[in-house]
Design a protein that fits this description.
Layout (H helix, E strand, L loop, with lengths): L7 H15 L5 H8 L3 H14 L2 E3 L6 E3 L12 H20 L3 E7 L2 E7 L16 E3 L4 H9 L2 H12 L12 H14 L2 E3 L7 E10 L2 E11 L5 H23 L12
Antiparallel strand pairs: 1-2, 3-4, 3-8, 4-5, 6-7, 7-8
Helix pairs in contact: 1-3, 2-3, 4-8, 5-7
Amino acid sequence: MGSFSSVRSLERGLKILEALNRCHGTKAQQLATMVELPRPTVYRLLETMQNLGYVTRSKTDDSWNLTAQVKSLSSGFHDDVWVTRVAAPVLHGLGREVLWPVDLVTFENDAMIIRESTHAESPFSIDRGMAGTHLPILKTSGGRAYLAFCPAAERDAILDRLRQSDNADDCLARDAQFMQRLLADTRQAGYGFRTDGFNPHTASISVPILVNGRVLACITMIWIASALTFTEAVERYLAPLQRATARIEAQLTGPSVAPEELGR
């Protein structure tokens, strides 16, 4: 717990907003039952939120509804920030379990960005300060995992842009047979993988975090190639990565998560 006690009126107001979000056009007595509060308390909170512009009262049937201003409460919200906050504790727990560095990566502007990393904590890391680094999508296991498991229309659009790119890291997109084989192998394995490419001294595997058919992020584990064979790394560490992504997916699809936040 924090150092301050909770503010009851704020808690109650948020409960009412959540209830109105689930059931549009609800009367005060119904809301009082739903949130288990006295009706006079619910009226006071509704009138306060009405004065602030977040709810409106129908003159026809005396029901209450949310207004468009409620959207302003989430206007600064971004998926990558939200997913990182949910995933970070799981990621650092995974890092303590496997010891090799692990990264949380998301897709942005045809590249993968490291949003959270355990490189600074890992005794086996040869890189530091990786958070915020942009990685080539075709030469990293996280990028390959993202491409293999994202919706087909999105994948086709990404590959079309990469084929037109002048960046040397994107030229593989022009090899149709290579891309077809790579994506098929990745989907069959269930994870992205890299044994060379971006960093010849390391190898990596990456498991996608999937919610409602979207790849919200990927968890990547990196190891020194001379220390472990690819087969050894998969046998030892794929299961912990899959358990971590399953825990994150469960949290992201929990009852407290609004459908619009999952891109539905």
